[in-house]
Amino acid sequence: MSLEIEKAVLEKACKEMIETIFICLPNAFLGTIYSVGKMPDLIVERITSGLISDDRKTISWGLPANSVYNPPGRPWIEYRDQPDRPLEAMSWCVGRQKSWTAEDPDTDARSVRRQMEVGLEDYHHMEPVLVRKSDLNLDEYPALEYPRNYDGDIIWNDSDYIVVAVIKIHFRPHAITMNSHETRVIKKLSRSLGTELLSYQLRQDSMEAMEKLARDRVDACNILSDSLRNAITKSGLIFSLLKQEVGYLRAQWEHVLLSHRNEKSVKEEAVKKLNSVLADINEVDDESRELLTNAHNRYLGLWLPPEQGERWLEMRIEDKWNKLLNRYHLNDDKRAMAYQAINELKESLEYGRDPAVIGNYDKIPEDLKNTWVNLIYEDIESFEAPIVDRIIEILGNPLLVIPSRERSQKNLIQLKALAKTMNQLEKDTNFLLHQVLNEDGDKS
Questions:
Q1: Rounded to whole angstroms, how far apart are CA atoms 340 and 149?
Q2: What pLDDT was estimated at residue 202?
């Protein structure tokens, strides 16, 4: 059992996903999506590849002239892990249902070219596209044959998912690392692609069911309802990407101010202090130390609105430090350093709108600067909020001298348009279902 979608529909969905990834990730330049076929063969076939131009305005589509994954593709037994051949990242993604990040081609354990000593792969990330078994009603196929690994063990038997596709995105050198912002965006978008592909499958199934159940209108409408609702990608992901883009603008703005004032980042210096104090507490268990260190490092990559950022700090860092300092003995100087660093993290939330900081920045007209700061540090509650349109408008002002101004404006315009489309589609679907069901009720 696998997804069986018309070739043209599948290729269109894959191209749109690659375009979305290029919009979200400016360091990505080449994207490929592979389909994964029926069990137990799991034939992997390249659907399409897209290469974006240097000016990021055009995408060239097509398939490489020579690739083992070009149609008709490769079955599982040819790319799974075996002792007598190189390990492949495709085997890892399909067999283990986990992503693979080649952040260092020189040490990539699953680079076939490196293992065969014919060259190196480039920097890339591969992400499996998963669909729940329950969504495909696999429990209705008790005799379904699952694939096996080289040792004869069944794969996917204990998983709630099957792999229906694999996304591979190539990046510029040193622009991708494991568990980075880029990998998280691709993972979220892979879920969106899985939902979209499932929706096409369910829509196709529903049309077949409607033909068979023409005399049972209510049941047919229920099938249509399930299919259409599954076709709607939840707007939560789009809204999350919109907020990330505004967070990126805050980061760009604060970097501009730091450079102008020739200052070090208060946030980075405070995290260094906390890590230093943590290293001096020998009694802390490894798990607690790792959790707190990860929270410190994650905060460095977040650019939240001040109110939201303060809540995040309190829950993820300050509360844990209070418990830590109450549990373990620490001299007064180190204790004071920890509290001071936490306060500095809170103060860093206001850095980009601190009047003392922005007051002497004269690269932007004063009125424009004040409006800009007020907009990007306000929390956005929905994609329909007027503030989104105001940010898009102000990004069109060439007097606003910040990096990636035009790119961010384009991203926000596209994300807002996509969110509106999905919202309208959901309203239209609900209206249609209501009308059909009522019509059926009127005739009975």
A1: 54
A2: 62
Instruction: Give which of 271, 322, 260, 309 is closest to 293, Cα–Cα.
Output: 271
Tokens encoding 145: 């044959």
Selection from 404, 268, 14 nearest residue 5 by Cα = 14
The more confidently predicted of residues 33 and 234 is 33
pLDDT tens string 309-320: 999 999 999 999
**Separation CA 346–CA 348 (nearest Å):** 5
Selection from 98, 121, 99 nearest residue 111 by Cα: 121
Contact (Cβ atoms closer than 8 angstroms) between residue 10 and residue 198? no
% pLDDT > 70, the chain: 83
Q: For 316-328, what is the mean pLDDT?
A: 88
Does pLDDT of 216 surpass 90?
Answer: no
What is the spatial distance between Cα 335 and Cα 327, in angstroms, rounded to a whole number?
A: 12
Q: In what order do the strands lie in the sheet with 44-52?
A: 59-62, 44-52, 28-36, 161-171, 123-132, 100-102
Q: What's the pTM?
A: 0.48
Per-residue model confidence (pLDDT) at position 226: 58
**What backbone torsions phi and psi does residue 154 show, to the nearest 5 degrees?**
-70, 135
Q: Which two three-digit tokens encode residue 79?
A: 């790319």
pLDDT at 167 over 90: yes
Distance in angstroms (rounded) separating the CA atoms of residues 89 and 145:
24
The tokens 């001299």 sit on which residue? Answer: 331
206 phi and psi angles, rounded to 5 deg: -65, -35
Chain centroid to CA 23: how far? 12
For residue 101, the SS3 value is: strand
Query: 3.30.450.40, 3.20.20.60, 3.90.180.10, 3.40.190.290: which CATH number matches 7-216?
Result: 3.30.450.40
Token output for 144 = 């379904």
CA atoms of 441 and 444, how far apart (whole Å): 5
- Give CA–CA dist 251/1, Å, rounded: 46
Rounded-to-integer distance, Cα 251 and Cα 265, Å: 11
- For the chain, the domains span 7-216, 243-416
Contact 147, 39 (CB under 8 A): yes
More confident residue, 267 or 3: 267
Token pair for 386: 């007027």
